[in-house]
Automatic annotation (TrEMBL):
Keywords: Magnesium. Residues 20-125 form the MobA-like NTP transferase domain. InterPro entries: MobA-like_NTP_Trfase (IPR025877), Nucleotide-diphossugar_trans (IPR029044). The lineage of its organism: Bacteria, Pseudomonadati, Pseudomonadota, Alphaproteobacteria, Hyphomonadales. Gene3D superfamilies: Spore Coat Polysaccharide Biosynthesis Protein SpsA, Chain A. This is MobA-like NTP transferase domain-containing protein. It holds the Pfam family NTP_transf_3. One of its GO terms (molecular function) is nucleotidyltransferase activity.
């Protein structure tokens, strides 16, 4: 699990007076503990989760007594942290999520991992369709990728099946450096692939086939049927929504 923050710090954590977003209180428990519980109760995982980006002391505070292990933390962003953990001996396959996935449930984990294993891709990515999200939460603001068949929002769920998937993580690491320079990112894909993605606006599965061909690793998409899978805690508005959902009993 990724629980680090950018070097500039996390504004939401600062606003709540805690050292890490993982420690933000959600109805009486640290946010990280909710994610750990969902992972530990899933039938798809057979060992305690690893957490990257927290000191042993912060991990103890944020875990809420749920078993978790410290992974090697590497500066430079999520991709660098993942690669560093694998280089330090973390074994594949790996399910990757984030400490702010406060609405994660065992059912979501079971569905995502099951579909990732079924599709046989080197790397699987969880996405949710705009219509799925807005049917339940019409006013929530999410970032959508405008695919031809349906706009999609990320779910902070990744399944790294084998070493070939690390080609994509290496690309992600380089692209993170250019996250505010889309033309540079496009050039990394190559002109033809970039034009097909930017101008052709393919369907979600065709888009990832194009990216897979360019990067030399098969990337699969798992379209999640859970609106809550796309709601992470990036802002105070997100946090307020998450608390309302939990308080109303939509998430246990």
């Amino acid at each position: 699990m990724l629980a680090g923050a950018r070097a500039s710090g996390d504004a939401l954590a600062l606003a709540h007076g805690v050292e890490s977003k993982a420690l933000i209180d959600i109805l009486g428990e640290p946010m990280l503990s909710r994610v750990l519980r969902a992972l530990s109760q899933s039938e798809r995982l057979n060992s305690a989760p690893y957490v990257s980006g927290l000191s042993p002391e912060l991990l103890t505070q944020a875990s809420g007594g749920i078993s978790a292990r410290e992974a090697v933390s590497v500066s430079g962003g999520p991709a660098a942290s993942l690669l560093g953990a694998v280089e330090a001996g973390l074994q594949l396959p790996l399910l990757i999520t984030t400490c702010d996935h406060a609405l994660l449930t065992p059912d979501m984990v079971n569905h995502f991992v099951g579909e990732a294993l079924r599709n046989g891709a080197d790397l699987s990515i969880g996405l949710a369709a705009k219509e799925t999200i807005q049917a339940s939460y019409p006013t929530t603001k999410r970032t959508y990728i405008p695919f031809a068949d349906s706009p999609m929002s990320g779910c902070n769920l990744f399944f790294v099946a084998n070493p070939n998937a690390l080609k994509v993580i290496e690309f992600w690491k380089k692209a993170e450096q250019d996250r505010k320079k889309p033309l540079r990112i496009a050039r990394r894909f190559g002109l033809i692939t970039a034009l097909r993605l930017l101008v052709g606006r393919p369907s979600v599965h065709k888009a990832f086939r194009l990216i897979s061909n360019r990067l030399g690793a098969r990337i699969g998409v798992v379209v999640m049927p859970f609106a809550e899978a796309a709601i992470d805690v990036d802002s105070q508005a997100d946090l307020d929504l998450v608390k309302r959902i939990i308080a109303n009993g939509a998430q246990k």
